[in-house]
Amino acid sequence: MKNILAITMGDPAGIGAEIILKAFSHKDFFEKYKCVIIGEKSVLEFYKNLLKINSPQIVTIQDPDRYEDGKICVIDLNIVKNDFEAGKISSKCGEAAFQYIDYAINLAKNGSVSAIITCPINKEALHLAGHNYPGHTEIFAEKCGVKNFTMLFKVENVSVVHCTTHCSLKDALNLITTEKVKQNITLLDGALKSFGIEKPRIAVAGLNPHAGENGLFGREEIEQINPAVEWAKQNGINASGAFPPDTIFASAFNGNYDGIVAMLHDHGFVALKSRDFEAGVNITIGLPIIRTSVGHGTAFDIAKKGIASEKSLLAAINDADKMAKYRKKL
């Protein structure tokens, strides 16, 4: 039996609907996956007609149990209908995107779906609608009632977590503590095991150039990061570091590590998105439910051009499916 996976449509004015239509159009899609869309049929049909995408038939269903194979099954929340403009920020689209997420989380919490895959939302639109979250990750954490969570970004066979994400660089420096690094090492170790890696190899990146050069360029490695690495080793986690952040990613992509703990948002994302901008997958770890996401944004600038790639969405669906199957084995 295939897992039933929920895909949230994202901001209606962005590229979410387009990449969904393209992903479902792959000839072997229905052989591999069983997905339902949380969104709106009218929005999907708008982009199908506008961009002339030859996708499967779009149908509405009331709940995941009514899934129909070979069709794009939509649980239609009917919020924006056709009252939106592609590529334009609006509070109505922000509200719709939030409601899609909230609905999907409830489905996952009650066991109706095995995992959630999210298409991109626009943070400004989300805030205009009165939902003041930094992004998807924090919505999922609050709705699931967890405080020990983090964002994991995966490209090819390298997974990266970040000790700090959506905050200013000045604020980020004060957030890097031994406890924060310990937490991220532990979460990454558990996530890698859920991917089927029995003994994950984790590299911990430093904060400063050359990982501080033994205190010459900063003492965060000595005072905050290295103690967390030693703690991890003593607790049976195969972690090492701190390594210079400008070299450790190349080493991981050469097969030496399964995952990296990065200190700063841009340390990890610049390296990974330079490697493959289209295929990255964003995964929230530490949740009681499975959530994966595309690794890109709403791309309003190309929302009406028909050139958005579904590559990241397909990778996110595949990872969610693997994680769901692993959980079933536990």
Write a brief structural summary:
This protein has 330 residues and is α/β, with parallel strands linked by helices.
What does the radius of gyration come to? 20 Å
Q: Sheet bearing the most strands, described?
A: 12 strands, mixed
Helix content: 40-55%
Subunit arrangement of the protein: single chain
Task: Give the overall average pLDDT.
Answer: 93
List the helices and strands in order: EHHEHEEHEHHEEHHEHEHEHEEH
Helical/strand content category = alpha/beta
> Which stretches are poorly predicted, pLDDT < 50 over at least 5 residues?
none
Cα distance, first to last residue? 17 Å
Record the SSE blueprint.
Elements: E1 4-8, H1 16-24, H2 29-32, E2 34-39, H3 41-51, E3 58-60, E4 72-76, H4 91-109, E5 115-118, H5 123-128, H6 136-144, E6 150-155, E7 158-162, H7 169-175, H8 178-194, E8 202-205, H9 220-234, E9 239-243, H10 248-253, E10 259-262, H11 265-275, E11 281-285, E12 291-294, H12 311-329
Parallel strand pairs: 1-2, 1-5, 2-4, 3-4, 5-12, 7-10, 8-9, 8-10
Antiparallel strand pairs: 6-7, 6-11, 11-12
Helix pairs in contact: 1-3, 4-6, 8-9
